[in-house]
Amino acid sequence: MTTAQEPRDYPFSAASGLHLDPTFAHLRATEPVSRVRLPYGGDAWLVTSHEDIKTVFTDPRFSRFEAFGKECPRPNPEVRTGPPTIIDLDPPHHTRLRKLVNKAFTARQTELLRPRVEQVVTELLDRMEEKGSPADLLESLAYPLPMTVICELLGVPLEDRDKFHEWSDAMVAITSVSPQESEQAFADVMAYIANLVEERRRTPSDDMLGMLVAARDEGDKLSEEELVLFGVTLLIGGYETTANQIGNFAYTLFTHPDQLHRLLTEPDILDTAIEELSRYCPLLSEAGNVPRIAMADLELGGVRIREGDAVFIELNSANRDDKVFPQADQLDLGRTHNPHFGFGHGAHHCVGAQLAKVEMRAAIGALTSRFPKIRLAVPAQDVPWKDERRLRGAFALPVEW
User: Fold this and answer.
1) Which partner for 384 in 147, 192, 307, 395 could form a disulfide, CB atoms 3.0-4.6 Å apart?
2) Between 1.10.10.10, 1.20.200.10, 3.30.70.890, 1.10.630.10, what CATH number should domain 8-400 receive?
3) Distance from C-alpha of 363 to C-alpha of 246, rounded to nearest angstrom
């Protein structure tokens, strides 16, 4: 059993497009639990293998809450402050909130949204076709689809949606905006959603925020602060992640013409294609992880973790683990065994995962069937990517058909 290692500087390199640093593959093979030195707060453990990351997800001795608001090792200068959201909590507090919010995210509720999602996609593609080729696929489809869906779910008026985009963009920035600007964006969206919650208290509605206001379990219900914080979580999880991944999926298909051709000729593999794209396309930047704190001495991957140690999990690396995904660095839209971590795992599996998949399927399915000759309008190397963001995505995705 290993108890100490010489730490490597982490992140190993700046996240660039959808490229993964080859150090992750090396570590999976040689040191799946390795010691790293973060830019702020000192040393931590980095977990890169699928098996060990699954353990961290499910072992209650790893706490997310213990890292919240603390001077622990971290890739970014600011320490997160303010009230914790559902993603920052551990059981039993997380379990209680999850049980309540799940009432608004049942499979039935999500399936009821499918016709509206498909209608929005059709309207957006109609508009894109009317304007003509070339077009920016992000501006035409990837951004407005999840923004429309999440704002309709929350009951956000059409005229306020640009504000949501600005707030969301500032909240996922690392250095492109100041910590003060990011904090102000968080405060602004908190205040906005608090007003929406107050309106739902006065006038009940059947939108998702209204359902969350009404959700109860054996006399328990969400507090005002919990409602507002979950609204903020929905904004980031329901808009920013899905928007970036729709663009990332499209770019990946355009740069893998054999797989795009397969999807065009075998449209019935769309469901497995979305799962494979969720595995293959990295979403978090390497510096975007949230640490967990070990609550006891334990062994992980043959390494002794001490109580109080910070542990980072690298989901992008886990999704390229050859021990779980044969030929993991190859995109295979027909891959059927696909236990990826694109939406997390265990208690913290994304509550809106099914809704995100409905949007992704609708967007990619309609795009490829309606525009079978669609392709990048610029060389792949000329696509501009966002830097210094917690989430990976392009600034623009010029396409022609």
Assistant:
1) 395
2) 1.10.630.10
3) 7
